[in-house]
Amino acid sequence: MKREGSPKVPTRSKPSRRGSWIGFAGLAWELLIVGSLALNLVAIALFASPSLDEGGAPPLDFDAEASVAASAALVGSKHSEGRDEEISVSSTSGSRPTSKDAVINLDHGDPTMYESFWKRMGHRGDITIAGWQGISYFSDVTNLCWFLEPEFDHEIRRLHRLVGNAVADGHFVVVGTGSTQLFQAALYALSPPDTPHPLSVVSAAPYYSSYPAVTDYLRSGLYRWAGDASAFKGNIYIELVCSPNNPDGSIREAVLKSENGTIIHDLAYYWPQYTPITHAEDHDIMLFTVSKTTGHAGSRLGWALVKDKDVAKRMIKFVELNSIGVSKDSQFRAAKILKAISDGYELPNPKNKYKLFDFGHLLMSVRWKRLREAVKVSGIFSLPEFQSSYCTFTGKRTETYPAFAWLKCEKEGVEDCENFLRSHKILSRNGKHFGAARKFVRISMLERDETFELFIERLSSLT
Amino acid sequence: MKREGSPKVPTRSKPSRRGSWIGFAGLAWELLIVGSLALNLVAIALFASPSLDEGGAPPLDFDAEASVAASAALVGSKHSEGRDEEISVSSTSGSRPTSKDAVINLDHGDPTMYESFWKRMGHRGDITIAGWQGISYFSDVTNLCWFLEPEFDHEIRRLHRLVGNAVADGHFVVVGTGSTQLFQAALYALSPPDTPHPLSVVSAAPYYSSYPAVTDYLRSGLYRWAGDASAFKGNIYIELVCSPNNPDGSIREAVLKSENGTIIHDLAYYWPQYTPITHAEDHDIMLFTVSKTTGHAGSRLGWALVKDKDVAKRMIKFVELNSIGVSKDSQFRAAKILKAISDGYELPNPKNKYKLFDFGHLLMSVRWKRLREAVKVSGIFSLPEFQSSYCTFTGKRTETYPAFAWLKCEKEGVEDCENFLRSHKILSRNGKHFGAARKFVRISMLERDETFELFIERLSSLT
After folding, report:
1. What are this entry's molecular-function GO terms (chains A, B) (predicted)?
2. Residue B58 φ/ψ, nearest 5 degrees
């Protein structure tokens, strides 16, 4: 259905699905990629057959952006500031590979695999914002978090009730510019303002590679990165518990047990597509992000569930000082996106068969199956193993399919897995950034189908 | 024109224009307010007569939100953490007064006066974002600022060329979550990472009240607030130059002249509605914000024009560490909003007579005229005076109409103007927060018509 009179976000012009492709890499490769994608497509088709009349875009649309980016694709980047930098943006970041031997960038956890789901959703995920809406700084001054849009608050609580992964009742919702901002807000909130020495911030290795850099970049007098929680000696600290853990997918609890210590639970990946939901978490500070829930990383939106009012107030004060609140546009949109997800489960409708967590879980299961097969074929890598558990959300025993693969090179003579993969034009994140050995790398499992399939093909060929 | 199939941002239900009003404050007051608004309405009508077929909402629409907020309105707030807090959010923040003796909150620079312009613009400022758009973290990896949307970049440069207020050519555009984030990014970029002592950050008093708090809240080892630039002794520093200045509207240059010092130019208010555009500024770091340009404070979006590549890179690194980029949704929308403004001037069209800067300038001129009259009638206040200048944008000699009024109490026995106004239910920001005397307050001139008119009426009555 075409809509008149509603201006759309400008999109870059799209060539035909062949166009630049054939000239660039040849028909043979195009056919190969389409062939290798069959498994995913079949899996997806099982529960979500797009109807033509719903305006869903074709699932494997190639656009001009990819061709432009790819034509400049190089290993490394003109913008890269060296591999010790936390995030190394290269000319291949966020784009599709455009030939069989292209660089495959799996360094970031860019959740572009969700694009195809939202294309299938048709207009259910669309939003129109009128020019005059959302002008004021204030969203709801009756809420402690005065910059939280009421609809977003409502849909967050509804989604947690639906999924059963966290207790939102009795918690304040604090919205942030991604969970990255909320992580800093929580550090600020938990550090005494007049502390003579910075509070120690720790996390059990392997820990999320951003924690050290984000804790230390301003050399704050309030808090300071103190490394692996398992090696920490002391009673006063902030322990970061990421569960399921980034990078290795493990389910975690705090390793330190002091009464004077505090804990931030980063639950970005505690959603049914990645792991069985075994119970509703009910901690003092729980962080979530839209990026890993729905795929909308570009919206830069996260939320915290916070039990203590004074801690919530200090987190809100941080967001106020750091950015005077959080984009209303992102909140309007995310409210719509979360609503579409919950409606998919709660409003039975033969036309409304699009279920995000089902899509995500099935796609992740196919990907992990293919990854484990490729690792077996290659014979030079290993992966963590996970036990299945009963998932209260699906009502079934389900497997764990983490958003990242924590891959270890077992090949003799290879000490640095990232370098080894880089020599085969696969970009990954070195284990050393996670407080682990360089034999490990973190690989994103959330890229677009064609990127993932090319990765599997290349990994299988390594010996 | 009604559009089918394009879901809108949920809006709170609107009662009829009387409804709760009459019950609450009586018809008499409603008539008074409507009467006092006549001057503004006439002024606006001079150049922007809304056509019914364009879907523009009525200009003085009262909605349920205001009634709800107002029914709880109190002087002070349950959320206020005391007047020394930088931003004191109260139950009256962002809402309209609902009776003649209601609290009038002019503490914030909430630019809600722009709502009526965007309502008149009809669908020209609307945007529809499809569910699958803007998923990736990355906007354009060929740009140094990889999270900057190309359309937003384009419209920023176009607007600066149109207005002639700043040289964008030869500058990098760095996008931020409001200019507040970019201010911190600039501090980070200008501070040597290995500095043994925090760099001194100064600004000539009266300075923007947020500068000290935003500089110091994390007790950074990189930089530290050092107060009034005019009193600073030393050669190494970052000087903040806000021009036109918040709070007093004065045109400023750096007061310190050391070769080893650096300067951040905060040009948030250097737009034709507030001040004559006398020349295009061409400094190393220039900060702008969508809030004060178009009114969209809720979008939390700003931009910096940065001359030096390494400084730009470090600012980008800050935004990466602070929030992994900036909301794409806000950027999509702001690109559309800026485009609508530039189109209003550059695409002559009898139906397209809506010109933001003309609207803003005319409305501000009416408001300043009324404010000066009220001050004269009252006899206990004074205001700064400004010289007119030739404005290269309008091609006319124009006056200065700052976004804030820097009001001084001249009444004998009144040492604290904020307290005095508060006793008359007018909330303002105390001069002490700006490094000035308590006889001064900052008053927002950007609130909605009815708030401003009630303020003028009450101010005139004070003796």
Report:
1. carbon-sulfur lyase activity; transaminase activity
2. -60, 150
d(CA B36, CA B28): 12
Dihedral sign, Cα of residue A167, residue A171, residue A172, residue A176: negative
CB atoms within 10 A of CB B245: 22
Note the pLDDT of residue B52. Answer: 29
pLDDT of A37 reads 52
Average of per-residue pLDDT across B268-285: 98
Confidence of residue A12 (pLDDT cuts 50, 70, 90): very low
Looking from the CA of B329 toward its CB, the CA atoms found within 13 Å total 33
| B108 with A332: Cβ contact below 8 A | no
- Above 50 in pLDDT, residue A51? no
| Domain-terminating residue out of A344, A365, A381 | A344
Residue type, B315: M
Together in a domain, A252 and A114: no
Q: Give CA separation, A37 vs A104, A122, A355, A448, B353, in Å.
A: 16, 22, 21, 11, 52
What is the predicted pLDDT for the residue at A73?
A: 31
The Cα B207–Cα A85 span in angstroms is 36
| Residues of chain B positioned with their CB less than 8 A from the CB of A220 | 218-221
Residues 6+ apart with CB under 8 A from A175: A145, A147, A148, A149, A152, A153, A301, A302, A303, A319, A326, A331
Tell me how crowded residue A410 is: count the other CB atoms within 10 A of its CB: 14
For residue A291, the chain B residues in CB contact (below 8 A) are: 137
Both A255 and A284 in a single domain? Answer: yes
B142 lies in some domain: no
Interface predicted TM-score of the whole assembly (ipTM), two decimals:
0.86
Domain that residue B223 falls in: 150-344
Q: Environment class of residue B359 by beta-carbon count within 10 Å: exposed (0-12), middle (13-18) or buried (19+)?
A: buried
CA angle A287, A288, A291 (to 5 degrees): 145
Instruction: Check: CB of residue B369 under 8 Å from CB of residue B400.
Output: no
Contact A354, A119 (CB under 8 A): no
- Residue B244's domain is classified under what CATH number? 3.40.640.10
Higher pLDDT, B352 or A214: A214
The pLDDT of residue B299: 98
* pLDDT on residue A436: 98
More confident residue, B385 or A13: B385
Report the relative pairing of strands B104-105 and B426-427 from DSSP bridges: parallel
**Residue A238, strand partner residues:** A201, A262
d(CA B362, CA A436): 63
Q: Which residues of B touch A152 (CB under 8 A)?
A: none
Is the distance from CB of B115 to CB of B295 less than 8 angstroms? yes
- Alpha helix segments (H runs only) across B249-355: 290-294, 309-323, 328-346
Strands B104-105 and A426-427: unpaired
Give yes or no: residues B174 and B295 share one domain: yes
pLDDT tens digits, residue range B217-245? 999 999 999 999 999 999 999 999 999 99
What is the tens place of the pLDDT at every residue in B6-43? 445 544 433 333 333 333 333 334 433 443 454 444 34
Mean pLDDT of B165-188: 98
A276-313 pLDDT, tens digit each: 999 999 999 999 999 999 999 999 999 999 999 999 99
Neighbours of A49 (CB within 10 A): 9
Query: Which A positions 325-344 lie with beta carbon below 8 A of chain B?
Result: 325-330, 332-333, 335-337, 340
Sheet holding B285-289, edge to edge: B172-176, B302-306, B285-289, B262-266, B237-242, B199-203, B223-228
Q: CA dist A446 to A245, A303, A365, A401, Å?
A: 15, 21, 12, 11
Least CB–CB distance from A126: residue in B131, B177, B313: B131
Counted across chains A and B, CB pairs separated by less than 8 A come out at 325
Q: Is residue B192 part of a domain?
A: yes
